[in-house]
């Protein structure tokens, strides 16, 4: 094969995803990986036929080389941010799987790429192997997307599914997930919702064609979800999932957030289990569409990275302005609604004293805060003569609900506010 016949690819990172990309492209006739940056050149790798001579432990060797496309697969902000900017300045197109970098610095990077007439593709950064960016940018481009609801983190979905299936506590399932390699030793990024928040920031920006700022995305993780909440949700016809959602209010504000949610068992997302991810879009004229599949892993994520690499490779040399549909073409920042002003339905679990007037007290506090109740159920007496009471509300404002919670905490009838989880509307 002559050099002129293939397009040269540089990889930054040869971890799980990088290895999958290398293996997938190993025998490609169109592209060839000619430079790879790794942390440790001598580390043994499970890759047959890996040419050690193309490895370097200096990532700047990749971005300063003669490659045409750089795939950044190391994650994090630095050195990824500077490496991508250097690569663009050196005339390279970019493929990245870096959701945190896009959520925090996407605007600067896309503008910088446009100034240099280069593209940044990032299919792998949102939902691993699920194709979602390209469909929104191309086949769904004629839609006005009103709402996105998604399960974007496999670790949290695995934990919640296992809690549901086994009736186990969050702590026990987390420990098991760590032993199986589904959860990191420090699981904060996943279980506190950071990972999903990064992803929904970029996904909402795409869906609404307006920039969403990460600091305006409400985030709440799964660490407070209890086995008892799982059982109560099931009895009421729901499953509990960590949902990343984005919608536009009637007055044109973006409502973008990540938090646990009671999802109706009739909904597709209620049945997305274990490490599977899914994205549901609601738009006009398409109606509702759900894409589901593996949100992480060596080959699923590599599938998206390789798709982006080949999309760029197939255009190179054909015209001077490649992939116009895939470029970032929105520059307006969305106005966002403050979480306290949002309207939600709520599931509330209270531990109350077993005495006359409890239900009346709960009803009165809710009434004083303009909250209507859809259902209220006492879930058996405990040995200590207290009872857990489960409440589902009608639609009400977040700030009114938080006021009510403050009053429950000081009520003589209530021992403890066990849980407050929003309910899918």
Q: Going by CATH, what is the homologous superfamily of the largest domain?
A: Dihydrodipicolinate Reductase, domain 2
Name of the top-level CATH class of the largest domain: Alpha Beta
Record field, number of beta strands? 17
Radius of gyration: 24 Å
Approximately what portion of the residues adopt beta-strand conformation? 25-35%
**Which residues sit in consecutive blocks of at least 5 with pLDDT less than 50?**
none
Question: Mean pLDDT, rounded to whole units?
Answer: 95
Share of residues in helices: 25-40%
Structure description:
- The protein has three domains: 3-128 and 298-326, Rossmann fold; 133-294, Dihydrodipicolinate Reductase, domain 2 (2-Layer Sandwich); 341-423, ACT domain (Alpha-Beta Plaits), CATH 3.30.70.
- Strand 11 (276-284) and strand 12 (287-294) form a beta hairpin.
- With 425 residues, the chain is α/β, with parallel strands linked by helices.
- It starts with 6 loop residues before the first strand and ends with a strand.
- The longest helix has 17 residues, at 99-115.
- The strands form two sheets. Strands 7, 8, 9, 10, 11, 12, 13, 14, 15, 16 and 17 form an eleven-stranded mixed β-sheet that branches.
- The mean pLDDT is 95.
- The protein is elongated, with a radius of gyration of 24 Å.
- The chain has helices at 16-25, 59-63, 80-89, 99-115, 124-127, 133-137, 154-166, 170-180, 188-191, 194-208, 227-235, 298-313, 358-368, 398-410; strands at 7-12, 31-37, 55-56, 69-72, 93-96, 120-121, 144-151, 218-219, 238-248, 254-264, 276-284, 287-294, 343-353, 373-381, 386-393, 396-397, 414-423.
